[in-house]
Amino acid sequence: MGEETGTAPAATPATTPASLLPRRGTGHQVVVELLLHGPLTRGELGLALALTPGSVTRAVRPLLDAGVVSELDALPGPGLGRPVTPLDLVVDRDVVVGVKITTGRVWGVVADLRGEVLHDASVELSSTDPGVAVGAVADLVRRSLARCPDRAVHGVGVSVGGQVDAEGRVSVAPLLGWVDVDLGAALRQRLDLPVVVDNDVVSLVRAERWLGAARDLDRFALVTIGAGLGYALVVGGEILELPSSARSPIAHVPLGIGDGVCDEGHRGCASSVLALPAVLDRAAGALGRGGDVSLDDLLAAHSSGEAGATAVVEEAAEALGALLALVADLAWPRAIVVTGDGIGLALAGRDVVDTAMRARRAADAEPVTVDLQATGFTRWARGAAVAAVETFVVGR
Ligand SMILES: [Zn+2]
Description:
Blueprint: E1 2-3, H1 25-37, H2 42-49, H3 53-66, E2 69-71, E3 87-89, E4 94-101, E5 105-112, E6 117-124, H4 130-146, E7 152-160, E8 163-164, E9 170-173, E10 178-181, H5 183-191, E11 195-199, H6 200-211, E12 219-225, E13 229-235, E14 238-239, H7 270-274, H8 276-287, H9 295-303, H10 307-331, E15 335-339, H11 343-348, H12 350-360, E16 369-372, H13 377-394
Parallel strand pairs: 1-6, 4-7, 7-11, 12-15, 15-16
Antiparallel strand pairs: 2-3, 4-5, 5-6, 8-9, 9-10, 12-13, 13-14
Helix pairs in contact: 2-3, 4-5, 6-13, 8-10, 9-10, 10-12
The site of zinc ion has 7 residues, from helix 7.
């Protein structure tokens, strides 16, 4: 993770090449098909796009001439047929930027069109004031692009924990304390680049759907543990739109575990027992150290066998198991991806998670794969980059 220092904003590279990717027509269809499913032979492209061999040849030739598409080594053809030459998109000459805004820091990546991270960096956010955040994002984007010169820049994806409309206006972002912030417009003005703003959990699930372990599943759920509890569901390969509430759909489901009370007054709801601030509050009491306890402190005390720490971790793990059992029974996904900055709790208490999940489900319930992913904020920023590819290259 590169950390950017200094205050002088670096200039946008003077000669940013224009993208050669076609924006419409058959050429665009070929580019998108290769981006999502390449490498593909001409025959496979024809089948996927319902094009005649002649149409495929006519669409591909200018893309090869422009260097947008390349031919890979020939493979033996089917049966006794002639060898076939797969085609693929040349993905690293075009880039997008992905940014995740958190309360203390802005995280950014420059990624190629398949979400491969070429450069990552972060800057501290001195305050959550929207103007300060916009300035920090704009500086980070310019500096990051200056590190990856000579690439066509398609746009910037930004992810924020909150409700966001299609134009990038944030109606509410509870952790940042934002209400009605037109983040998209402010960033477009500062950056002179296309900008898409997305809910952070939605952009993370976009990246999972494209690039993660769940990429071939038509139905999966994503649960994030952090300052809040996030949830997203993919059904038939499509991300279900989040309900128009600022509140996460799983944040306050009753689990009946622990005697904590959340800020809405529920005893034993998911937030009261599993959200990171609640867990760390209990850890501070259990470890008797006074002052704040970080997740790293708690996990270190747990791995050295401190009884108080173990009880706190196991209670959170039991709550997660109960929550995952609900998700499994109500949404019947094939897999549940669990991630977020509190994932260490789940990893430390993995056995308890699994046992609690099994105990709350029917004995003959179809098993659901639970994929615990230790990820940093760079992955969230990559999710925002994928949102930019979907918006500005694929055209979703
Ligand atoms: Zn609650």
